[in-house]
Write a structure and sequence with these properties.
Strand content: under 5%
Distance between the termini: 61 Å
Shape: elongated
Largest sheet: none
Number of helices: 54
Length: 999
């Protein structure tokens, strides 16, 4: 203080000196004196005017410096924006000025006011506190202390604040506050409390003092004091911005003291007024809501907690699970418990969560990825001494009987060393279900294996065992083992106790076909009759078909009248598919010599079923009926119509021969010769061409023109062999017999020997076909296709259809889809056998799909689906390819009906993908509710094709993301991440969406 007093004396002395010289001043000096007086009076505007006027006339360098100082000091006092620049310019101009300490102080104060604390500290340090006035010294100390505090130099700041607190006046209270604050920041809470207690009545710092006091009590877990101080603070300052934090710590305190009602009241105010509330407080508020039975609010709060991977999130998920259970939202409850169970922060929480998750998996029939089995297993392994273990063991037995993921169940059961009766019962059902899944996906060998195992297990589950006989019979039938199929169907029918079911009736229908395929017509007739007596749905396609087969059996037994009645019944039951019945009825009329009736029936078939595969047969039989009636005109019209409409049909060749014979019998020899030549020229190498050649010889003999016949025959060259040597014929017949007996090794040797002996023999085409068939059976596809092409190139029509069918099949199997497509197209034109026609359409559809030709695929699918007797698996595939073709052509609405049908059976891969595609189309069309409904149904029903179920989970997350429901989206993605075992693009999809949710 001594230095400060000396400085003040110097200032007073200088004033005295100037006072003695006043009378000597001239006008210029008077302006200086007046300016200085105004400066001392803090009239800075007047001071500036006087001093600036003085400087225009001044000559005294000392006074000019004083004037410049007062001008920049006035600028500082006025708060002018450029005051710091003026002060710095002053110091540059007068580097040795006695006013340097004050000028530096002023510059520092300007930076302080601008909150440029680093610069302020710099300029304060350039000043000399001892050269400042008393008030300036205190301001200097406070401003420097505050700047140091802002720059993190707490110890230096504390020293200044403490000194000011002792001797300061203007900044005494503020310094006391900052000393207390620094004690608070350093964890010296008792000292801080003492300091803040002295400030509570101070207007400027009372609020902050009371606020920090409340905070300190909260830190010290003195929750009663927190509540007292905090409530008083809210009452005294109801509109302060920091009140949300006060509500937070009061709410926490009430929670710690057990008063959850008041805790929820304060925390809800905190949450509602804070943009980013703390996760811990959201958790506490969620728990309070849960305990108050306000479960909707609880899920809202707790759902905002689960944004990190930590113990708090694990606990929040556990409460979320219980909250959703109370709301009867088992789906979200299950996923919440799963999330808590997969975290490892708190073992007790994990135990409770894992148990609840496992139970909900079981109760909601949700086990898309085998979780229901593995989760119960995991629980027993992880918590061998849990109080829940007895219940878990009971549940695990039930899960084996109800799970949709049968492979996971079988793997689990096989781990049990000594399975009891209940487990074996469950195992038998699991094996049966695995068999039906494999059958549905046309994995017939796998299906057969599972059914064998289910049957071999015994009678633990009689229903599963009996049903396994039925489906093993179905499998054998599809594999062409009709005797085995019949045996299994009979066993099923003899053993089943459920006789009033569709499956029981259908077993008779299938058994009838098994006998029918073995030409056991009496047995087949009996079973088909039993079926129609049991079938409740009179409109079922199988019902009408059974009457057709009854008619066929009666026809083979030459019970023509009864057969006709059966065909009539079939046609009346299913008029749209009655073409076969109409044709058979007409054929029977012909056998009974009712040729008019036959013609009438065939005309009906031609007019009512113009697309029927029997139209060419009807035209031929119509012509034959006219022949029997000796009505040449009607016969020739029918035969000519057949030839022009179906030129590729084998019946067209026969019709040509019939026309030649018709004209020959009518003695129209020229016309007869013309028709025979048409057959010979249009169908060279065919059996009909050979017949036509022989008949043509008779025509020319009657015309007494043998030379013309000889000339015509010679013009044919080597295309037709008329005479076959006995050695040629006998060598071939011997080889053919070996082939027909199934001796492929002997047949191959003999056929190759025949071709070496007779390379251009009459039967070379047939020999090549048989050799191609042998190579095909051995999967020697290159050899087989070469031989089949020889058959096709020969012009011999006998095996043309079969050779082309095998060639197309090989090209398809070898994935040469472009060539297969063309072969199937040709086969579709020439095929007469229904099975080859269907194979052609099916192969065409598949090849078009693989070669990315949606229009071709669509047309082939439509053609297939027109067949009412199409097998269910082919129907499924055709619908699937048709739907995909529509989607490829941006005609999604047309795809919807097929997707809706297919998606009903998610056991097939087409059904699983269709379920996903249907939901995706709804989602793309902004029908999120429909998409969600489909996907939830998909999850509930499950599928063995887990990739598409995983895609469903991804899409469901997208649905929730589109609604800003990040919680549910994250739940589904996390559940998928935990349970999906595939190594494919699903992993990237999950990570992509979870990454976006984190942002």
């Amino acid at each position: 203080m001594k230095k400060i007093l000396i400085s003040l004396c110097v200032v007073v002395g200088s004033h005295t000196v100037y006072g003695q010289r006043d009378h000597q001043f001239d006008a210029a000096d008077r302006l200086f004196v007046e300016g200085k007086e105004l400066f001392n009076l803090k009239n800075y505007a007047g001071c500036i005017d006087k001093l600036q006027a003085y400087k225009t006339k001044a000559t005294d360098a000392d006074l000019i410096q004083e004037a410049d100082y007062m001008l920049v000091a006035a600028a500082f006092e006025q708060g002018r924006a450029n005051a710091d620049l003026l002060l710095k310019e002053f110091l540059d101009t007068y580097p040795d000025t006695r006013h340097e300490p004050v000028a530096n102080f002023m510059i520092a104060s300007i930076h302080f006011d601008r909150e440029e604390y680093e610069k302020a500290i710099f300029w304060f340090n350039r000043s000399d506190i001892d050269q400042l006035g008393t008030e300036q010294q205190e301001a200097y100390s406070f401003r420097l202390a505050y700047s140091l505090l802002q720059q993190g130099e707490k110890d230096q700041a504390r020293n200044y604040f403490a000194r000011i607190q002792q001797i300061g006046k203007t900044y005494h209270t503020a310094s006391a506050y900052y000393v207390a604050y620094l004690d608070y920041a350093d964890g010296n809470y008792d000292k801080a409390l003492s300091g803040f207690a002295k400030l509570k009545d101070k207007k400027e710092f009372g609020l902050q003092a009371q606020y920090y006091t409340t905070q300190i009590y909260f830190i010290q877990n003195k929750f009663d004091r927190v509540i007292k101080e905090g409530e008083a603070l809210l009452s005294a300052y109801p509109n302060e911005s920091n009140n949300n934090e006060v509500h937070r710590i009061i709410g926490n305190s009430y929670y710690r003291l057990g008063d959850q009602n008041k805790a929820a009241d304060h925390l809800s105010k905190y949450v509602s007024t804070t943009s980013n509330p703390l996760r811990g407080d959201l958790y506490i508020l969620g728990v309070c809501y849960f305990n108050k039975n306000n479960y909707n609010s609880a899920t809202d709060m707790l759902g905002r907690v689960v944004t990190k991977s930590d113990e708090l999130t694990q606990n929040a998920y556990l409460y979320l699970g219980h909250s959703y259970l109370k709301l009867n939202d088992k789906n979200n409850a299950r996923m919440s418990f799963e999330a808590a169970a997969t975290a490892n922060f708190d073992k007790q929480v994990r135990e409770v969560a894992l148990y609840n998750y496992a139970v909900l998996l079981h109760e909601t029939a949700f086990s898309g990825f085998g979780e229901s089995v593995t989760v119960f297993e995991d629980f027993l392994n992880d918590f061998p001494n849990s109080k829940y273990n007895d219940q878990v063991n009971d549940y695990l037995t039930e899960v084996y009987l109800t799970t949709k993921n049968y492979k996971a169940a079988l793997t689990s059961i096989d781990k049990i060393n000594r399975p009891g009766t209940k487990i074996l019962e469950a195992k038998q059902n699991v094996l049966f279900q695995l068999g039906t899944q494999a059958f549905t996906n046309m994995n017939l060998d796998e299906a057969d294996d599972y059914f064998n195992k289910a049957i071999a297990l015994g009678n633990y589950n009689q229903e599963a065992r009996n049903d396994a006989y039925f489906w093993r019979g179905e499998t054998a039938y599809r594999k062409g083992s009709f005797a085995k199929a019949a045996a299994d169907y009979n066993t099923y029918l003899n053993n089943t106790r459920l006789r009033d079911t569709d499956m029981y009736a259908l077993a008779y229908y299938n058994l009838g076909y098994s006998y029918f395929k073995q030409n056991q017509y009496n047995d087949a007739l009996s079973r088909f009759r039993q079926y129609v007596g049991l079938e409740k749905n009179q409109q079922a396609a199988s019902h009408a078909d059974a009457y057709n087969r009854i008619g066929d059996c009666l026809f083979y037994n030459r019970q023509f009248a009864d057969a006709e009645a059966a065909y009539s019944r079939a046609a009346s039951l299913q008029p749209s598919a009655g073409d076969y019945a109409v044709y058979q009825r007409g054929f029977l009329m012909g056998l009974q010599k009712d040729y008019r009736g036959k013609i009438k029936a065939m005309d009906r078939l031609i007019s009512d079923y113009p697309q029927s595969q029997y139209v060419d047969d009807a035209l031929f039989e119509k012509g034959r009926a006219y022949v029997m009636l000796e009505e040449s005109k009607g016969a020739s019209e029918a035969f000519n119509s057949l030839i022009s409409t179906f030129p590729q049909s084998s019946l067209a060749r026969k019709a040509g021969v019939q026309l030649g014979l018709l004209y020959y019998n009518d003695n129209q020899l020229d016309k007869a010769a013309t028709e025979y030549k048409k057959v010979i020229n249009n169908y060279p190498g065919s059996e009909e061409a050979k017949v036509a050649i022989q008949d043509l010889k008779s025509v020319y003999i009657d015309m007494n023109d043998i030379s013309s016949y000889a000339a015509y025959v010679n013009s044919l060259g080597g295309n037709t062999r008329f005479e076959v040597s006995e050695q040629d014929s006998l060598t071939y017949i011997a080889a053919e017999k070996l082939f027909m007996r199934g001796d492929n090794t002997g047949a191959k040797r003999s056929l190759e020997n025949y071709l070496q002996t007779f390379p251009e023999g009459a039967f070379s085409s047939s020999a090549n076909y048989y050799l191609g068939s042998i190579a095909f059976s051995h999967k020697e596809y290159d050899q087989a296709i070469r031989l089949f092409e020889k058959v096709l190139d020969s012009g011999d029509l006998k095996f043309r259809e079969e050779a082309l069918a095998r060639k197309a099949e090989i090209e398809y199997l070898e994935k040469d889809y472009t060539e297969a497509l063309e072969s199937f197209k040709t086969l579709l034109v020439i095929a007469e056998k229904p099975e080859n026609k269907q194979a052609a359409s099916l192969g065409l559809m598949r090849s078009a799909q693989y070669t990315n030709q949606p229009l071709e695929a669509l047309q082939a699918a439509n053609q297939l689906l027109e067949d009412p007797k199409l097998s269910p698996e082919v129907q499924t595939e055709a619908r699937y390819i048709r739907a995909k073709a529509y989607i490829a052509q941006k005609q999604e609405k047309k795809a919807l009906p097929d997707l809706q049908v297919l998606s009903k059976d998610t056991r097939t891969i087409q059904g699983a993908e269709s379920k996903y595609l249907l939901a995706q189309l709804y989602f793309n069309n902004n029908e999120g509710d429909k998409a969600e409904k489909e996907l939830m149904n998909f999850i509930e029903n499950g599928t063995p094709h887990q990739y598409w179920l995983a895609r469903g989970f991804i899409l469901l997350a997208d649905v929730y993301i589109s609604r800003d429901d990040d919680f549910q989206a994250r739940q589904y993605l996390t559940s998928l991440q935990n349970n999906y075992k595939g190594q494919d693009d699903i992993i990237d999809m999950i990570e992509d969406r979870l990454g976006k949710l984190k942002k």
